[in-house]
Amino acid sequence: MSVAALPLTHRRLRLWPALSIGVLAVAAVGSLVLGPAGVNPWGAVVEALDHLPLVSLDSGLSTQEAAIVWQIRVPRMVLAGLVGATLAGSGAAYQGVFRNPLADPYLLGVAAGAGLGATFAIVFELPSGVIAPLAFAGAVVAVVAAYGLARLGGPRRTGATLILSGVAVAAFFTALQTYLQQQHADTIRQVFSWILGRLGTTGWSEVRILLPYAVVSWLVLIVHRRHLDVMAVGEEEASTLGLEPGRVRLVVVAAATLGAAAAVAVSGLIAFVGIIVPHIARLVVGPSHRRLLPVSLIGGAAFLMVADLVARTAQSGGELPIGVVTAFVGAPFFAFILASRREVGA
Amino acid sequence: MSSLTARAVTARYNGTPILGGVDLDVRRGEWLVVIGPNGAGKTTLVRALSGAMASGGQVELGGRSLAGLKRREIAAEVAVVPQIPVVPDGVTVFDYVLLGRTPYIPYWRMESTDDYQRVASELERLDLAGFAQRPVTSLSGGERQRAVLARALAQDASVLLLDEPTTALDLGHQQQVLELVDELRHERGLVVISTLHDLTFAAQFGDRIMLLVEGLVVAEGSPSEVLKADTVATYFGATVDIVQGRDGPVVLPVRVRR
Question: CA of A5 to nearest chain B CA: how many angstroms apart?
């Protein structure tokens, strides 16, 4: 094989990020122009573009319509994108680092910890602004506890030890959460609504909270996409190839957890995205994290934007819980991809 | 001329000693075959020499101790072909062999064109160029073993450790893989240490043979010095005839008539 022949294959695979960005753009425009308020679609797009730096356009919308676009639709679209990308990226990273296709961002206790934190804030009627920070803190504490527990196993601890520790910690935190919830039955509806996940937002505050964590998480994961490919051959082989598997695992888990905890803190427990999007991406671009991670991030953003659009518009007079939609849209889509799967790289 | 020297290598598993102090010296271009019954500590020796597990004693390469080196520095010196390599589902031959370049890529960077070229030339050398974009899992046993070997060669290490490299291969492919290793060690002046179950292959390909039993070296020397019918009977519990073949002793199992 001549060396010159190689870039061609790589070029073919570079199409996928471009394609997924195209899908993301369509999803973004869709969630911008569709909504119950009946704003002129073209006007909505122009209004959003008008807020970009160095762009000045007249959308022709009334002040109220302009506010609907810029204070409701755009922040919600951006939030869906941030949450979707972060959960899908974290899921891909967890699946890679633990070599476990069933891993998701909640594997090491993020969900249970965040659930406990949020429930604590809700049942003790703390100010609503405290729910997100407590959920975030709960998620981080749970994962740190899982790591600490795995460390007790001594120097030969492996990914499997860590997963088991995560299971134990998650069970414990869930038990505490259920106990709290059961002792304060009057707030059960609120707790459930948080657990089902939602992107309901007015203004940009959630986006501002999540953005820095999300960006740090994405950057660290993107940088480690090559290392995740090495980890795929198992920890022992990875170490004979010159990698420090323990260190890579710690950094990747920390970044994925930081992102997932922040996403959960602002949106609740949105299921399915973190597990299904990376699998769809894997079926399309193959198992290499060089392509899988970027495509998961972009695909996760697009997926959650579409899911949120369905949640907002499918049912007149109310919203569907987004977690229901992600599974409802995601499962058939996954089935479709699985059925039309061709051998990648063959 | 660098060589691999190990002194008093010990290793434990869950507190149980597996290696009780192994010494070895292998020059560049030399092939040492480690034989021994199941559970003798052969794989543990490979793992200890590669730094994949904690071990006692000294391992030096060209007079430089491996103990103080970072993982990536060791990987640039010592490449391992594991007994049962983990092959991720769907990974292409090219991407798999590219993993061998890990020791040379700075932590925050991606591979360079030089790395791609090195992979391409190893694929060419091992007749795998046509398989570059095929998933490794779709290859036959012999092709797959060549891909694992290509990955080890891409590491550009002077020491090649092979743990039962012919497991799961038919006779023809066993021969082909071993002949390939033999060519490569002469071509590149590699220090080759391999474990092998097949004693005849051990005799044909090894310059020297080391017999490991319960973590201790009980015999070492040329194939004809080590491979004797009574030695094989004592340590392997096998009844064999040793016949002098063209390339060294041939070990023939014979039935015990009762």
Answer: 10
CB < 8 Å to B15, chain A:
none
Torsion angle defined by CA atoms of residues A95, A98, A103 and A107, in that order, rounded to the nearest 10 degrees: -130
pTM of the predicted model over 0.90: no
Of A9, A233, A344, which is closest to B99 when you measure between CB atoms? A233
Read off the pLDDT band of A1 (50, 70, 90). Answer: very low
Angle at which helices A110-123 and A188-196 cross, to 10°: 150
Q: What percent of chain A has pLDDT over 90?
A: 49
B157: DSSP letter: -
Contact A9 B133 (CB under 8 A): yes
> A286: which chain B residues are within 8 Å (Cβ-Cβ)?
90-92
**Tens-place pLDDT, residues A181-226:** 999 989 988 888 888 888 876 689 889 989 999 999 999 999 999 9
Alpha helices (runs of H) in chain B, residue ranges in sequence order: 42-50, 71-75, 93-98, 113-125, 141-154, 171-188, 199-205, 223-226, 229-236
Instruction: State the CB neighbour count (10 A cutoff) for residue A320.
Output: 18
Residue A27 reports pLDDT greater than 50: yes
* A75-345, CATH topology level: ABC transporter involved in vitamin B12 uptake, BtuC (1.10.3470)
Chain B residue with the nearest C-alpha to that of A232: B88
What residues of B are in contact with residue A282 (Cβ under 8 Å)?
90
Query: How many helices (H) does chain A have, and how many strands (E)?
Result: 15, 0
The answer to whether A176 and A48 have CB atoms below 8 angstroms apart is no
Residue A128 pLDDT grade (very low, low, confident, very high; cuts 50, 70, 90): confident
| Residue B130, pLDDT above cutoff 90 | yes
Using a CB-CB distance cutoff of 8 angstroms, which residues of chain B are in contact with residue A223? 108
Give me the pLDDT at residue A214, please: 96
What is the complex's ipTM, to 2 decimals?
0.92
Query: Under an 8 A CB cutoff, do A241 and B120 touch?
Result: no
Delimit the domains of chain A by residue range. Answer: 75-345
Cα–Cα dist B191/B158, whole Å = 6
What are B135-147's pLDDT values in tens digits?
Answer: 999 999 999 999 9
* A242 interaction partners in chain B (CB closer than 8 Å): 71-76, 102-103, 155
> Distance from A294 to chain B by nearest Cα, in Å?
14
